[in-house]
Amino acid sequence: AQSVAQPEDQVNVAEGNPLTVKCTYSVSGNPYLFWYVQYPNRGLQFLLKYITGDNLVKGSYGFEAEFNKSQTSFHLKKPSALVSDSALYFCAVRANAGNNRKLIWGLGTSLAVNP
Amino acid sequence: GAGVSQSPSNKVTEKGKDVELRCDPISGHTALYWYRQSLGQGLEFLIYFQGNSAPDKSGLPSDRFSAERTGGSVSTLTIQRTQQEDSAVYLCASSQSGTETYEQYFGPGTRLTVT
């Protein structure tokens, strides 16, 4: 069965420090991977995606994520965190196979960036 | 251009009443999704429409829930005989097509409270 795990409910980092939000997945076949962000009292916004090609993908607001096939991971990273990055982050995946086009979503990781 | 819109933004209803939630997707987007997000929880897939194909209803939690999409555009999610456990934020998303490579664009959600 397809699944996504975000092992950390909450991540705390100091402003200016690098941040990592972890995501691991389990799918049959090659995965399509996505990160979304939900700012307080706002809707979900797309950040970035991995479909194929370079394992390091760059997205909005200076975020990037690295696809690691051997570790089945797609961790979200940013070199220097901002207080405004504080939000809820969701990882999602679907398999590159079959007719099922639903995304499987992680439970989310709350990121708190402290000034 | 306009994003995904949802109405109402907030809905308070009494247990046992029926409610209708509306979603206007981005013009030209053929795929439309409904999700439910409970407080502090991840996204729960409800239903997925793709063009003229039969919808994927596999996520609907009970037969009290139904959805339709008229003319390939506006969608309505109906909950009959609401229960307190139906209280959640209901999110709608659309994408350019049903293919996996297109990211989903989310509306602001409808916060449903069943008293």
Mind explaining what this structure looks like?
The complex is a heterodimer of chains A (115) and B (115). Helix content of chain A is 0%, strand content 52%. Chain A is mainly β. The radius of gyration of chain A is 14 Å and the shape is globular. Chain A starts with a strand and ends with a strand. By secondary structure, chain B is mostly beta strands. Chain B is built from no helices and ten strands. In chain B, strands 2, 4, 5, 8, 9 and 10 form a six-stranded mixed β-sheet that branches. Chain B has a four-stranded antiparallel β-sheet with strand order 1-3-7-6, with no helix packed on it. Chain B is globular, with a radius of gyration of 13 Å. Chain B starts with a strand and ends with a strand. The relative contact order of chain B is 0.34.
Supply database-style keywords.
heterodimer, A: 115 residues, mainly beta, six-stranded mixed beta sheet, four-stranded antiparallel beta sheet, 0% helix, globular, B: 115 residues
N-to-C order of helices and strands of chain B: EEEEEEEEEE
The number of distinct β-strands of chain A equals 12
Largest sheet: number of strands, sense, barrel closure of chain B: 6 strands, mixed
Cα-based radius of gyration of chain B, to the nearest Å: 13 Å
Q: What distance separates the N and C termini of chain B? A: 37 Å
Helix residue percentage of chain A: under 10%
Number of helices of chain A: 0
Number of helices of chain B: 0
Fraction of residues in helix of chain B:
under 10%
The end-to-end distance of chain A, rounded to whole angstroms, is 41 Å
The assembly state of the depicted protein chains is heterodimer
Radius of gyration of chain A: 14 Å
Q: Profile the largest sheet of chain A.
A: 6 strands, mixed
What string, H for helix and E for strand, traces the elements of chain A in order? Answer: EEEEEEEEEEEE
